[in-house]
Structure prediction request, 784 residues.
Amino acid sequence: MDNERILRTKTAMAREDLDALVCRLPENVLLLSGYWPMSGCSFLLFPRDGKPTCVVPHCEADEAAEELWDAACVSFLFGVLAAGNPYADIGKALKSACAGKRWSRIGFEGGFESVAPPWNTAEPAIPAAPTQAVLDDVFGAGRFVDATELLNELRAIKTPMEQDRLRCANEIACRGLRAFQEGVDVGVTGVELVGEVERAILVEGTGYRGARRVRAFAQVSTCAAETAMGYRAMEITTARKLASGDLALLELAVVADGFWCDRTRVRVAGSPTETQAMVHKTVVAAQEAAIAAVHAGATAGDVDEAARAIIREAGHEKEFLHVTGHGLGLRYHEPVPLICPGSELRLESGMTHTVEPGVYFPSMGGIRVEDNVLVTATGAEVFGPFEKGLAA
Amino acid sequence: MDNERILRTKTAMAREDLDALVCRLPENVLLLSGYWPMSGCSFLLFPRDGKPTCVVPHCEADEAAEELWDAACVSFLFGVLAAGNPYADIGKALKSACAGKRWSRIGFEGGFESVAPPWNTAEPAIPAAPTQAVLDDVFGAGRFVDATELLNELRAIKTPMEQDRLRCANEIACRGLRAFQEGVDVGVTGVELVGEVERAILVEGTGYRGARRVRAFAQVSTCAAETAMGYRAMEITTARKLASGDLALLELAVVADGFWCDRTRVRVAGSPTETQAMVHKTVVAAQEAAIAAVHAGATAGDVDEAARAIIREAGHEKEFLHVTGHGLGLRYHEPVPLICPGSELRLESGMTHTVEPGVYFPSMGGIRVEDNVLVTATGAEVFGPFEKGLAA
Prediction:
């Protein structure tokens, strides 16, 4: 049980005068209960006083029972002929859990538009009007307070237990980085690389330090010519064969029991050109300078500038179009801290974020190196360190 | 361009007196525009009169331009330093697209709680309060009508173009079914099987009949003892090695450019026991009887009963706990048609659904065989047929 997480949440709820939080998004159910939902149809009622209640589909009850810290678990029939109307069953369970309470302010997840999928990534269950109708019926419309900012604030600083889950996810990700490193070669395709990376993480990561539900989401862009833009947030992996001198850029998300990491490596098929090698050296130097600038008390803007200055000096500022980093943990991207130019946000111990400078040329492709770090009083801990070489 | 889809949608909008539809979920953007969103941050404004407008992140503009049938495409900067507030940009683009219109009834996706992820399955973007605030600002609060039922009705019957996309997705899925068939053996683990199945689909499916974005989501349950329940909707794939005589059940979702299929096969490591072989024979017979009962005009209940009767006669009715099938197409599961006991819903030509009877024993594991069919006037077309054998 993550006592620190519970205590910090209850303290913040008292400050915001919230009687309870009701969560439906898998990332927040996990945050406050220890359980990572399978389908996303679970509800967590987290009162400021007393024990939480988690309402789950019966087919997830085994996992919920194993993973929940201390929440009472109530299940409803789901996906079988005997099932009734799940919303009616959920409403009944929630009503029973708050019977006799006089709550006037209940926090909910109104503002989350970028979400972590549940374990069943093929078909996320999300809250919409039917969920709101159940909540209005149970708690009374007009008692809801959007707790998005509060939840993001709470999530910005990870507890030691959460930090270790992220360390574990990054250690698992290294299996994929190694498969990528070994796989990039002339004649290999992007989809083959993605297949190997995702397979390695699934097969080698499942069971590692007790991880039960591991999945990777890889993208490999093998040629800038595939897109007219130098940089973009997402690439479509193709079946084009790498030619000698082509860059392959791996963008890798890994989830291990609900905790996410976000890594990038780049390799060249065959031997790098002088330009590729120089740009890569600049990007690695920028990334390491940013990591060296991380410590509790530093501003996010200073960390960004540490990377950006090196890229500027090398003449590539215009090709580094994005931020140096973003928060992450219970999602692939979290809003705090954003490591961007001019930010005066002070980093705090326990924050976790990416460090990912990149330089992109429409004619050559992108070179980015990305790791995930933990902010500490004395500096940054890099989770799951892995070598950054461009070629063998 | 799918003229039939457009025409049927406009006819239904006239019947419901809707001036426009505004869609944000990737599945409905795809349905009405031809474009399958990458991140899920796209908006489609689909007026009853005139051309639609699609508002997309700039980094998706290339794909949108290639895939959109006839919608005007407006992009906003996203994920780069130069980006402003995306909601402001989206609001501005939508306002401009509906300038001068006097719309009083606008349909929106209020009731979708089970959704298809966008291409970026690691972090779906979903509509919540911020999207609603933009829409209220652009169109005026109080003008929205929940069009969930209308969209589900429209989606229940696939156009010939949509049917062919589903045929294609199922043909791709067969690559994974083959990898599973070849992979099941004593000593092999569930996660290894998932890795091989997903890799085969990605590598062999990308480029097949022009498919650009292909991904598989496989689950393999290798032992009923892993769960206390005989049947449940989702399983966690483990690293346990298959022993001789163990069943391996593959549940497989595949998406190809936004069109989904849902298949199941079961194999035994080594030689099946007499009981396994008998139950498997019963399940295959039930599945084939249900498929044979499918034709336009049949009731969903009759199709369910065709399968259930055979399982009942074999004495396993209590072990067949779920429906015989469900709709699918733009999502892994769609609500229409539900092939369940007693349903008087009449199947119509162009409906697509699964046929997936199963029998589950806590002591032995589950045996299910699942295919996807198209309802026609004369019977069922099985998409991507694949053999059903339990062992080599």
